[in-house]
Amino acid sequence: MKRIVVIAHNIRSAHNVGAIFRTADGFGVEKVILSGYTPAPPFDGDTRLPHIAAKVGRDIHKTALGAENAVPFLVIEHPPLEELRREGYCLVALEQAPGSTPLPDYHPPERVALLLGEEINGISPDLLDRCHDIVEIPMVGTKESFNVSVAAAVALYQLACIEYN
After folding, report:
1. Which residues lie closer than 8 Å to 50 by C-beta, 6 or more apart?
2. DSSP structure string for the chain
3. Disulfide engineering: 113 pairs with which of 5, 26, 132, 156, CB 3.0-4.6 Å?
């Protein structure tokens, strides 16, 4: 089984974070890293006011349904890309960008750190430049992209479940 870490960077919606946790649990993700202004469930050492942490935790729980308690997570200011690289993870950004690989054509290594970006503007160019690979989900409808939590589910299915020869 592949080893996968998800990095949710600057995700605005607590409901998206909850859905990402639930999907991460379903695909056996090792850890979810919440960076930037991404909402987080309450955690040890949380410096937020207790009522703020509790409200955000309830909002995440609405879609996570307890997966936020099942999947280990880390709350950090900046995505720890260099640390993950040193640990042997291939840094894979999920983004529509020049030169990206269509997700169905991508053959992931055994260790993947999947970087997800903000709902409107995606992943910043400086973070994209630090990734090994950029993958995108081909679209055929009138919309340009999926919701970040839906895109995470599609990508995690492809990365975790598809075996390549």
Report:
1. none
2. --EEEEEEES---HHHHHHHHHHHHHTT-SEEEEETT------TT--S-HHHHHHHHHHHHHHHTTHHHHS-EEEESS--HHHHHHTT-EEEEE---TTPEEGGG----SEEEEEE-BTTTBS-HHHHHT-SEEEE----SSSS---HHHHHHHHHHHHHH----
3. 5
What's the pTM? Answer: 0.95
Query: pLDDT (tens digit, 9 = 90+) per residue, 100-124?
Result: 999 999 999 999 999 999 999 999 9
Contact (CB, 8 A) for 160 and 6: no
Cα angle vertex 130, ends 125, 136, to 5°? Answer: 65
In 102-127, which positions are buried (b, 16+ CB within 10 angstroms) versus exposed (e)? ebeebebeeebbbbbbbeeebbeeeb
CA contacts within 13 A on the Cβ side of 47: 2
Which tens digits make up the pLDDT trace of 51-78? 999 999 999 999 999 999 999 999 999 9
